């Protein structure tokens, strides 16, 4: 079952992100989780097997595009369709809010993720992503 995460899910979701290699030292995952839940235009969706969180995806709509971050499936539950189901749930969440397009970023060298997203119909975009830390 896929549903929006609750505040009490934070530790399990962050642990999943860490186990899946999704975190980076410059992006504190607890802060990311808390901000997503606090925002009116963002959420963390989770897949549960009983009381256990086995997958997650962070989704947000900035008024121009929908964005997906932190798609993670427990390593022992991969190849069961959970990633596809989470992405479908993220797309539904964005459509319900009027997002015209979904975009996501994939780190350099993550060929497995690129293959997964391309199999879902995502295509490379002719843009460069630039960033700057504000804190």
Share of residues in helices: 25-40%
Distance between termini?
A: 36 Å
What fraction of the residues are assigned to beta strands by DSSP?
A: 15-25%
Largest sheet: 5 strands, mixed
Uncertain runs are none
- Tally of strands: 5
What is the approximate shape? globular
Average pLDDT reading = 95
Structural class: alpha+beta
**Spatial extent as radius of gyration:** 14 Å
Strand order, biggest sheet?
A: 1-2-3-4-5
Order of helices and strands: EHHEEEHEH
Number of helices: 4
Q: Could you explain how this protein is built, in words?
A:
It is a single chain. This protein has 135 residues and is α+β, with helices and mostly antiparallel strands. Helices cover 33% and strands 24% of the residues. It contains four helices and five strands. The protein has a five-stranded mixed β-sheet with strand order 1-2-3-4-5, with helices on both faces. Strand 2 and strand 3 (52-61) form a beta hairpin. The relative contact order is 0.14. The mean pLDDT is 95.
Give a brief outline of the structure.
With 135 residues, the protein is α+β, with helices and mostly antiparallel strands. 33% of the residues lie in helices and 24% in strands.
List keywords for this structure.
4 helices; alpha+beta; five-stranded mixed sheet; 135 residues; globular
């Amino acid at each position: 079952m896929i549903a929006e995460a609750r505040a009490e899910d934070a530790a399990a979701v962050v642990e999943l992100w860490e186990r899946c290699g999704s975190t980076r030292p410059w992006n504190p995952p607890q802060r990311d989780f808390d901000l997503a839940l606090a925002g009116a235009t963002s959420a963390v969706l989770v897949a549960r097997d009983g009381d256990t969180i086995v997958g997650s995806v962070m989704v947000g709509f900035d008024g121009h595009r929908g964005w997906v971050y932190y798609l993670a499936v427990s390593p022992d539950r991969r190849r069961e369709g959970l990633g596809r189901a989470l992405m479908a749930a993220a797309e539904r969440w964005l459509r319900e809010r009027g997002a015209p397009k979904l975009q996501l970023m994939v780190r350099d060298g993550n060929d497995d993720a690129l293959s997964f997203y391309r199999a879902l119909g995502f295509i490379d975009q002719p843009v460069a992503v630039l960033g700057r830390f504000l804190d």
